[in-house]
Every structure is written in structure tokens, then in C-alpha cells.
Amino acid sequence: MPDLGPVLLTLALATITTLLLLIIGTPLAWWLAYTRSRFKPIIEAVTALPLVLPPTVLGFYLLVLFSPNASLGSFWVTVTGTTLAFSFTGLVVASMLYSLPFMVQPLQTAFEAVGREPLEAAATLGASPRDTFFSVAAPMATRGFITASVLTFAHTIGEFGVVLMVGGNIPGRTKVISIAIYEHVETLNYAEAHLLSAGLLIFSFAVLLAVYALNRRAPLHVG
Amino acid sequence: MSDDPLLSMEVRIAIEAFDLAVKHELPLTGVTALFGHSGSGKTTLLRVFAGLERGAEGRIAFNGEVWQDTSPHRVFLPPEQRAVGYVFQDARLFPHLTVAGNLAFAEQRASRRCEAIERDAVLARFCLEPLLARHPATLSGGERQRVAIARALLTRPRLLLMDEPLSALDARRRAEILPYIARLPADFGVPVVYVTHAVDEVAYLADSMIVLSEGRKVADGPVAETLARLDLGPATGRFEAGVVLEAIVARHDQVYRLTELVLGRAALFVPLIDAPAGTAVRLRVRARDVALAIRRPEEITSRNILEGKVLEIVEEPETAFAETLVDVEGGRIRARVTRQAVAELHLTAGVNVFAVIKSISLAGGVSTVVTAADGAV
């Protein structure tokens, strides 16, 4: 029986990261989709950085930030009594940064596809901006939300470099699937590595297939 | 008429190179046309009324209720708090909702300040019952606009703003929907401001009009008077320029399939229309469809010849043409003639002439038109 610890830990990490990014990424994507600010390209570039940076660079800077000598790290220690580095919370923070573009970009595209027109129509029909978001924009962008969540979830499951830098390899706390596979290979335990690798491969393929199949379908109707 | 709501505005807005500045007191009764060429600023002004242009400066008040005022303190009532209905050029139905869902969306957010407009009455008026379960993507352009108008009405608006709602439709669909719009103020008690660049729509629908050109108001007043003005050539367009006349149905000639109308004491003939004797109809006579003669022409195919007196002649020096305004019994008629003809016939103000009308269009006032109304008689 293989050790299920890393699998459960990975699923927990991906779920929490996806939920938190939905909360943070939605307003950010909304702003990027509708703003006329001249700062938009800068924010867009920063949001896209995790796509091009080697995960080790991101992990390195996070590790520096998380250190109890840095302001963020020491603040965290004061408030919670624990360090961010080599903890599950630290992993969540790192994963959110690492997966940010996978949440924001599909949402931004979806909101841009909604456009200003239905929002103006909703306003003239008496809907407040909040009402308009929940009853017009969000339902019209349903597919964007599904795509963004699935990609964020899947991408978080597949991360390795950042986890290795800020999380290390602590069973039950930071030892996720990708780290477990690395360890199995290091210790020449190919059977276990095969099992986890094949599982991840099949999972990833299924997720991407679902996303692409969803995007091919006829316009989504709700209600 | 003193209890008509009043929309007073003194607004300015600059969008890139375009700038709009309009000061006007608009009594809201019946249908008011906001008329001008594309780029004249009419849609922008309508959006300013609705609160969709946040960059607008100046003041707008509806019956004393301030909708926006940028000095001394910035007041800006967002669109959802103005209780106006807006019908967009492209309908803008919500694609994720059915027709019924779109209508319910409006009903649930209806202003409490106005009397309810009966959902059933709206459904019946716009024949929407069979469409309720459909999704907007499956509707025709005309059906979409009918739903959009009904949806705007269900918000119980104090004022209905319509932005060229028929411009995406072909002539047949337009003719189908125009009567619905013309009856909105009478049927639902809602004044309408209607943006258009089509003179025939103004002639059919509107009681009064504002003419915009390059972001400025160049004229306003009752439709018949404003369309008869010769000095608005560039703003109203020369090709479609013409006047609106009110005539009464006298009798029908089933043999030749003509209807005789009375204008003052003169008789006019138009292709048979479906309206009982005594019905008032609105006619549109385009300036380019009128010729002038010094003596009454005889043995001529045109049946509609009106005697009158030249009131005004405006020559257009850069062109071959002159615009003339002729006072006839029961109204005024514009004729577009050549400057050469003006010189050779010695036409000046005060000369008696006969206006030969080649074509008359029915502009409104009756529910159904049996034949295509346009035709030389």
C-alpha cells in the first residue's frame, strides 16, 4: 500500500490555494479587464511573472521574505508563533503566487468577453454594481471561472521547484506528490515513483481534457 | 401641459477629439427625437441622460431632482438610481437568461417610485408570450428589440431613452416595430427620447425634436416646424429633407385603389390606406419630390398639385440647387429646385406657385398600411 500522505497533502494544498485565489484573483481580474488605468500593463506584467520565472527564483525570494530576519517573516512569527518557511501555510502562500496567472488570466479573458455592454444594460435596469456582478457578469463568465479554477488546481498539484525551496520535505506538512516522487527516485524506489507519476499523468490529462472539452461546447446557459 | 416633466441640462463632455456641449430645457411629452448625423453627439447625449458617461460635466435635473451637478460639489446619481429605461441599439439582452428571465430581471429591480406597468399588458402589446422560453441567441433582430423595449418598460421608468433601436433592422421589420414605439407614451404613460438619424422615423414618431450637429444643439421645436426650416440643410441632410403635414382621410376609391385626403381645403391622393374616413394621418413630403410651376400644370400624371405662395428661398451657392419653402393651404411644403429654375421663373418670396408633389409617404397615424405607402400618384 503506497503512502497516501503526500497525495492528501497535495489535494489539500491545491484546494485551499484555488479557493483563496478565487477570492483574490476575481477582483484583480475584474480590475484588469475593465480598467483604463495607465498602470494596467505593469500590473499585468507582474501577474504574469510566475509564468516565466524559474520556480527557484520565486522560491528563493519567498524564502528570503519568510526568514524570521525579514519583516514579513518576523511579523508572522510574532503573530502566530511559527515560521512561514518549511510550513504548510508557507506552501499555500507560495502556491498562490506561483499559480496566480493561472487564475487571473482566464478570468480576465472571460470578463473582457462579457464586455461593458451587459453591465451598462444591467445598470439601466436598476441593478447596483454588486448585483450586476453576481447576476450578470459572473453567470456570463461561468466558463472562465471553471477554467481558471481547474487550471489553478492542476498547476498547484504539479509544482515542484517552489515547494522544494520554501517547503522542503517534511512528511505531513510539506511533502507533496512531486517531492515524494523525487525522493522515491533518489532512493531508487522506482515502483512507488511509477505509481505516483502515472497517477499524476493521468490526472493532469483528464483535467486538461475536461477544460478543452468544456471550451468547445456551445454557449453556456444558466437559468 | 404644465405638469409635463422637465429635463433640464447644461452638460459638456469631451471624448478624445469630440466635444459635446448642450444647454436645453426639454419638456417631456410624447416622443422627442434627438436627431443628427452619426458623430453629431446624439448617442453620447442620451448616455449622459442615463448616467452612462461618468466624464460628463455640468448639470442635469429631472423635474427638479438633480441627477448630476459637477459644481460646486460633485453630485452624480448612478444609472441604477435614475429610474430611466434605456433601449440600446444592439438590444443587449442577457445571453445567459431566457426572454422570461430577462423580463424578470427588470421587474425585480423596478423603481418603486412609479406606478407598476402591468406585465401582462406589456407581454400582450409586444406579442412576447410565444417567446418567453427562448434564449436571446435564437431570436431575430426585431424580436430582440421588442424584448428589449418590454424589458425597459418593466423597470417602471419615468423616462424611456431609445438609441436608434431600429437601425440594425431591415425596412420591413422597422415598419413592424415603429407603431409599437409611437404608442408607448399613450399606452404606458412614459415619455420617450428617441435618438435617430432617419428623417422618416422622426416624421413617423416624434412630436418635437432637437437637432444636434457636431456636438451642439442647432435647432429644436415641433417636428413640422423644424423640418420645414431651410437653414438646417447640413444638419437634417439634403437627400431626405422634407416636411410633415397633417391630413384627414376623406374617402377611399376601391377601383383605382386610392385614398383621398383633405389638407386644408385641398385634396391629396395616396395609395389606398386602411383607415376610416375622418382619421388624421401624418404625411411626409420630401423636398426632392416636389416641383414648382407658375401656372397650374395640365395633362400631367401627378395628381397632387397644391396652390401656394413662396415664403422663402435659400440658394446653395456651391451647388446647382436652391431650397424653397411654399405656404400651401394646411401647411408648408419644401421644394428642392435648381438655381437656374429659380432665376428663369423669377421665383422670389411672395410669388404664387403650384407645388407638384411626385410622392407622398404616410408617416404615421394609422395602424396598418395596405400597400407600400411610397409611390408616385
Word description of this protein:
- The complex is a heterodimer of chains A (223) and B (377).
- Chain A is mostly helical and 223 residues long.
- Chain A is 77% helix and 0% strand.
- Chain A has helices at residues 5-34, 40-52, 55-66, 71-80, 88-114, 117-124, 129-140, 142-157, 161-166, 177-186, 190-216.
- Chain A is globular and about 65 Å long.
- The N and C termini of chain A lie far apart (46 Å).
- The model of chain A has no long low-confidence stretch (mean pLDDT 86).
- Chain B is an alpha+beta fold and 377 residues long.
- In chain B, 21% of the residues lie in helices and 37% in strands.
- Chain B has a six-stranded mixed sheet with strand order 7-8-9-3-10-11, with helices on both faces.
- In chain B, strand 12 (242-253) and strand 13 (258-263) form a beta hairpin.
- The longest helix of chain B is centred in the middle third of the chain and has 13 residues, at 141-153.
- Chains A and B meet through helix 6 and helix 7 of A and strand 7 and helix 2 of B.
The largest β sheet of chain A comes out as: none
The protein's oligomeric status is heterodimer
Protein structure class of chain A: mainly alpha
Annotation field: number of helices of chain B: 10
Shape of chain A: globular
End-to-end separation of chain A: 46 Å
| Net shape of chain B | globular
Q: Determine the N-to-C terminus distance of chain B.
A: 39 Å
Largest sheet of chain B: 6 strands, mixed
Strand-and-helix sequence of chain A, N→C? HHHHHHHHHHH
Measured by residues with Cβ under 8 Å of the partner chain's Cβ, the largest interface is: A-B, 22 and 30 residues
How many individual β-strands of chain A?
0
Sheet/helix structural class of chain B: alpha+beta
> How many runs of DSSP E, i.e. beta strands of chain B?
21
Point out poorly predicted stretches of chain A: none
Q: What topology, given as strand order, has the largest sheet of chain B?
A: 7-8-9-3-10-11
Characteristics:
heterodimer; A: mainly alpha; B: 377 residues; alpha+beta; 6-stranded mixed sheet; 5-stranded antiparallel sheet; 10 helices; 21 strands
